[in-house]
Amino acid sequence: MAEHDPVRARSPITFAFLSAYMRRYFSRDFRALRVAGESLPPSGKPLILYSNHPSWWDPVIMMLISSLLFPGRKSYAPMDETALGKYRIFRRIGVFGIAPGARGAARFLRTSMRILEDPDALLWVTAEGAFTDIRVRPVRLRAGVAHVARRLPDAVVLPVAIEYTFWNERRPEALVRFGRPVSCPEDDSVAGWTAALESALQQTMTDLAEDGMARDPARFRTLVRGADGIGGIYDLYRRLRALVTGQPFDPSHEGAAR
Hints:
By secondary structure, this protein is α/β, with parallel strands linked by helices. It folds into 2 domains: 2-226, 3-Layer(aba) Sandwich (Glycerol-3-phosphate (1)-acyltransferase); 228-258, no CATH class. Helices cover 39% and strands 19% of the residues. The protein contains 8 helices and 8 strands, in the order H-H-E-E-H-E-H-E-H-E-H-E-E-H-E-H. It has an 8-stranded mixed sheet with strand order 4-3-5-2-6-7-1-8, sandwiched between helices. Strand 6 and strand 7 (173-178) form a beta hairpin. The chain is globular, with a radius of gyration of 20 Å.
């Protein structure tokens, strides 16, 4: 059936609609989505983006990045089969269900290989497999990405670090960093690939932590801007005062929104 085949089930129209909705949804709760890191690869080779998994917000971030940075690619992602049953519309944006255990792992591998037959496909994987604090070291990944990567030598495999943090404003920042492509390790086994993937993601997460601690937007490219300020009566008073005095109104706490 088409609903079990993400390539056939995916609808570009549904993806575009939900991406626009998620952008507005994100903007209500965050100050900005900011991206740093290595240059992004061009189209022409299948792309695997594997990340840490710190929050419920991760799929939203992935959808925004897919639509804003990779508009020419068709993005896909696995999701727990039971959870996907509650959000069936996600099947229309390239999400496919995976059950726990050996059968689920086999299906993930089989489905991923089918998706990545398309050189313009993009596969997202939260490779830690469960919500994990960004400070946990060493980084440990499930073996699914390694199985896929070693079978697809032409695919580009990029680590992606995700972090949510507060800087100097009321709303949090969503920070993302792309690492360098992971090359085939000398030990071309599942264990060798897993170790290489873990090392690359851990380094990317460490680099992102340093960027985040600097609290400097100039280190990032801002993809989505949310609202600054406190809101409510206090910001209304500040806006009226700026109007009366003829000064520009900047709602940010620092006085110069960045």
